[in-house]
Amino acid sequence: MKFLVLALATLALAVSAQLQHNGAWGTRGPQDVLLFRENVVAKSKWLRVNKVDLSYPQRGQNGGTITAINVYDGSTNGKGGYAKIKAGGVGQNNVTIRFKSQRGKAMNFTVEIYGQK
Ligand SMILES: *[C@@H]1O[C@H](CO)[C@@H](O)[C@H](O)[C@H]1NC(C)=O
Ligand SMILES: *[C@@H]1O[C@H](CO)[C@@H](O)[C@H](O)[C@H]1NC(C)=O
Fold first, then answer.
1. Which first-to-last residue range defines the signal peptide (predicted)?
2. pTM: predicted TM-score of the whole model, two decimal places
3. 108 CB within 6 A, ligand 2
4. How many Cα atoms occupy the beta-carbon half-sphere of 74 within 13 Å?
């Protein structure tokens, strides 16, 4: 019985991990600091795909050298969107990330960019 509960819990964890569309690029080193953190949220639109481009550094910010970019999908049911890097990225001092929702679905991502100032 105990084993079954444990097996089910493990399975549930594995499934929920798969249902999140997280993204990770690069590796955060011990000297790296959080350069930027932002939530990217879009409401569902009937039959529409939401596209949001997020750029770092934002106007008035000085960009640091990026070592790691993490994207967490706040949607755990597999209905969240997807993130991909459109320009810049790890090793550069700027990045543009494109977020796309699924058709007719909302999205809710958290972006963290680490690096050296
Ligand atoms: C987005 O996800 C976060 C973390 O799961 C949650 O706390 C927050 O309420 C969500 N926001 C929206 C608008 O769904
Ligand atoms: C991003 O950084 C690269 C060099 O790291 C530079 O060539 C490019 O012009 C920058 N792009 C923007 C949009 O600032």
1. 1-17
2. 0.83
3. no
4. 14
| φ, ψ at 108 (rounded to 5°) | -155, 95
Q: Which residue has the tokens 């929920």?
A: 16
d(CA 111, CA 73): 9
> Which tens digits make up the pLDDT trace of 15-49?
655 688 999 999 999 999 999 999 999 999 999 99
For residue 63, give the DSSP letter.
Answer: P
Tokens 């997280």 appear where? 22
Q: Is the CB of 88 under 6 A from ligand 2?
A: yes
SS3 label, residue 95:
strand
Q: How far apart are CA 50 and CA 101, in angstroms?
A: 5
